[in-house]
Design a protein that fits this description.
Elements: H1 3-9, E1 10-16, E2 18-19, H2 38-43, E3 65-67, H3 71-75, E4 79-80, E5 88-96, E6 100-103, E7 119-122, E8 133-136, E9 142-150, E10 152-155, E11 158-161, E12 174-178, E13 187-191
Parallel strand pairs: 2-4, 6-7
Antiparallel strand pairs: 1-5, 3-8, 5-9, 7-8, 9-13, 10-11, 12-13
Enzyme class: transferase
Keywords: Glycosyltransferase, NAD, Transferase
Region (Disordered): 180-200
Length: 200
């Protein structure tokens, strides 16, 4: 594949999800848990495409795996089940978009990008979504490269993330402790190299 094709059909994007264990806490816990934890499931190599539920919406653009080139959008999906722990998780991923079906109106019932397309590109035309999003409906089209452990600092204009530096993936399941300049708060980047396997 040429460089131009790679830029056209492959993109880097952020994916926010739920963390309900202690992985990354205090720079000590680095092993994925065995509980139902979205962060650890992805670290084990499993991106799960949500199962459609009759009568329910799959989100603004259906039952797929969401990602965005804007970290602020991914942050909207990042949650920590333990409210006493401020650390949240966000993945930096490679997404194979292929041929994109560009949508400007929401459709929560989608389970595929449509005939002759490989992904859905949801473009912002109002404040409904807040940022462009890419959806894939096959777990093999998205691969995690790093998980960013972070917390938000409060400012006069609202919450904002403290500075985070991201390093290229160097080894499987390696956690790097990062202390931004002038900050007492640690930020961790957990690197992933294992291939994405089929989910349950």
């Amino acid at each position: 594949m040429s460089t131009n094709d790679q830029k056209k059909y492959i993109t880097y994007a952020y994916h926010g999800t739920k963390r309900n264990c202690n992985i990354g806490a205090n720079g000590g816990e680095t092993n994925p848990c065995n509980n139902v934890c979205s962060v650890c499931g992805i670290l084990k190599g499993v991106f799960r495409v949500p199962t459609p539920v009759p009568g329910r919406s799959g989100g603004n653009f259906g039952w797929g795996i969401y990602s965005s080139t804007e970290s602020s959008k991914a942050n909207d999906y990042s949650q920590n089940i333990n409210r006493s722990d401020p650390i949240k998780a966000m993945f930096l991923c490679t997404v194979i978009t292929g041929r994109k079906n560009v949508l400007t109106k929401t459709n929560g019932n989608l389970t595929s990008p449509g005939r002759n397309y490989d992904s859905t590109l949801a473009q912002v035309v109002s404040t409904a979504t807040g940022a462009n999003e890419t959806l894939v409906y096959n777990h093999r089209q998205i691969k995690p490269h790093a998980v960013i452990m972070y917390s938000l600092s409060q400012t006069n204009t609202g919450p904002r993330p403290s500075p985070v530096r991201i390093y290229p993936a160097m080894s499987s399941r390696r956690t790097v402790l990062i202390r931004p300049s002038g900050s007492q708060t640690s930020r961790r980047v957990h690197h992933c190299e294992q291939p994405v396997r089929q989910g349950a």
